[in-house]
Amino acid sequence: MTVKSQSLLREASHQTIAGGSAGLVEICLMHPLDVVKTRFQIQRGKGDATSYKSLGHCFRTIFQQEGILGFYKGILPPILAETPKRAVKFLTFEQYKKILSYASLPSAVIFTVAGLGSGLTEAVVVNPFEVVKVSLQAQRNSFSEQPSTFAYARGIIRSQGFGLKGLNKGLTATLGRHGVFNMIYFGFYFNVKNIIPVNEDPTMEFLKKFGIGLLSGTIASCVNIPFDVAKSRIQGPQPKPGVIKYRTCFSTIKTIKREEGFFALYKGLVPKIMRLGPGGAVMLLVYEYAFAWLQENF
With the CA atoms of 238, 243, 246 and 251 taken in that order, what torsion angle do they form, in degrees rounded to the nearest 10? Predict the structure, then answer.
């Protein structure tokens, strides 16, 4: 193996490890908010008898009826997915960025397009895990009464298969969610970070990066949430058992807007921002510092 090949392999392995570490830290800190977000997104308006009245009501109801572990329903699929998912996210972003740099494009375009490419690649990897996670999060029984993650996944495969009606349903919505999110997330973060001069005080530099990461995650969450709501409806329980109402991404968005109004496409926005604002900042910082540490020590 040539020195150049060894260098590329070393860099890619560092990007993979740092990206996986970033994802694992973020999911362990932020998963309860993801459960709350999903519960709001699968509600079908005021006619839904099980609707939560507010964010506080949702937290209280889950805690009282399902216990503290109710906030960690569906956590195993994202934990199993986070290492490959975030590894793919950051590794492909870096590789797309490198490829695009040969085209002599402006850096702003490179960061944005590389982000889009990484999001689409990430979506393909993560979608089966999302199908299982959303199905588990939608259930309101106590944590101890839930089937195991693997049993639930086997049930989906047995009854519906691996395809777009089974373990990969909602793929188009997942592509839209991740593509749009990463395009804004990476594009905004790296472009803004590069404009602001580096602060010599490490604490201030850390806070600067955290602030930009927080803003990146917040803006990206606000823009991509209609895809997220559509994904939750497609992958979650249908209004009438045995009747599939939500089939494809754009038809689902159209149906929700027609039946529940435009703002129904933004259900779960507050818990989503609460999770992916700080969560997005945590991921970028863990990735950057872990990657720098690995480059220096290995």
Answer: -160
Query: What 8-state DSSP symbol labels residue 129?
Result: H
What span, in angstroms and rounded, lies between the C-alpha atoms of 95 and 127? 22
Strands (E), 130-246: none
66: its two tokens: 């399902």
| Side-chain half-sphere exposure of 131, counting CA atoms within 13 A | 26
For the chain, what's the residue count?
Answer: 298
Q: How far is CA 275 from CA 84, 152, 217, in A?
A: 20, 26, 9
At 296, list the tokens. 């220096």
Q: How many percent of the chain have pLDDT more than 70?
A: 95
Tell me the pLDDT tens digit for each residue of 208-220.
999 999 999 999 9
Task: Compute φ and ψ for 243, nearest 5 degrees.
Answer: -115, 120
pTM of the model: 0.82
